[in-house]
Amino acid sequence: MTDPLTEMLRGLRLEGVDYARFQMTAPWGLLFPAQQAARFHFAAERGCWLRTPENEWIRLEQGDAVLLPRGAEHALASAPGACAKPLGQCQLQTVCGDIAEARGGGDGEQTMFFSGSMSFNVDGQHPLLRMMPELMRLHELAANEPGIPPLLTTMACELALDRVGAGSILTRLADVVAAALIRSWVERGCGDSTGWVAAARDPDIGRVLAAIHLNPSEDWTVEALAGVMHASRSAFAERFASVVGETPARYVVQVRMHQARQWLVRDRMKIAIVARRLGYESEAAFSRAFKRVIGAPPSHFRVTDAEGGPAFNSDPRPGSAPPQQFGGP
């Protein structure tokens, strides 16, 4: 049988990726601003220092990787405390589309790292991403995930050759890299023992989460979810809340509303159809639930989509800025 983590990640796909190879010579520093898209970095040659979202400097050795699933602000540098200039000021040479490479710094030791800026098909407030920590760090990734370095080499070749369709191929390769980073991080038990790690590694709760994410339109009562875990209603509810951090009912509503948002924006469904699909007796009842979770009424997303406004990874607040990518202002 497929493990729960695989089932949960099945619906988590990339809609686009900006990819860059950085060859930097000390002293150097780059500030990666907060954005809605995720980022990953892989230290390919030597290592560098990372300033975490909590403003702590940690060392990344050659072969280490990090994934920031919600795109929190951070910096990479040749040494702790180095002056980090905004990424938008970095001299990036576009190879094709959203693929770039950059060189910079002083005349010291050279470091090479790969970076990707990725937009998932769900926003950063989706329960699946919200359970993840701000930073996923993997030590000796090359040794524990031997398939990733060849993928990064292939990505570098695609970048260098500038062939037709390179952007699409790089997106799919980055998709695999991101999934492998998440899987490796979870399997090795890094980070906190609650939230994402505990939920993904718990065979019972993980199976429940997988069922919810694979079929969010199902009428998931507490009794039905307890049946998936083969437990009593009270035992299931207590264990779910202790592991995930919220009640089963609240979690289900959040997943359903984020799915509704996808149907509205991506599939351009009518609000009434989405309401019926999720089992609401009236459009008004659905709209109230949607606004309570997402922060804006469903009509807002129908309007902004028609006007070419926010899409998959947009902030639900009206007038929010689109995510910054490599070389953005």
Describe the overall structure.
Helices cover 41% and strands 21% of the residues. It has 329 residues and is of the alpha+beta class. The chain has two domains: 4-187, Jelly Rolls; 202-306, Homeodomain-like (Arc Repressor Mutant, subunit A). The strands form two sheets. The chain has a seven-stranded mixed sheet with strand order 9-10-1-11-3-6-12. Strands 5-4-7-2-8 form a five-stranded mixed sheet, with no helix packed on it. Strand 9 (92-96) and strand 10 (99-105) form a beta hairpin. Helix 4 runs antiparallel to helix 5 (166-187), helix 8 (222-229) crosses helix 9 and helix 10 (248-265) crosses helix 12. The longest helix is centred in the middle third of the chain and has 22 residues, at 166-187. The chain is globular. It starts with a helix and ends in a 23-residue tail after the last helix.
H/E series: HEEEEEEEEEEEHEHHHHHHHHHHH
- Can you count the helices? 13
- What's the helical proportion of residues? 40-55%
How large is the share of residues in beta strands? 15-25%
Instruction: Report the principal-axis shape.
Output: globular
Main sheet: strand order: 9-10-1-11-3-6-12
* β-strand number: 12
User: Main beta sheet, described?
Assistant: 7 strands, mixed
**Using only CA atoms, what is the Rg?**
21 Å
CATH architecture of the largest domain: Sandwich
The CATH topology of the largest domain: Jelly Rolls
| CATH class label of the largest domain | Mainly Beta
Q: Which stretches are poorly predicted, pLDDT < 50 over at least 5 residues?
A: 304-329
Structural class: alpha+beta
* Integer average pLDDT: 78
Q: Could you say how many structural domains there are in total?
A: 2
N-to-C span: 47 Å
CATH superfamily of the largest domain: Regulatory protein AraC
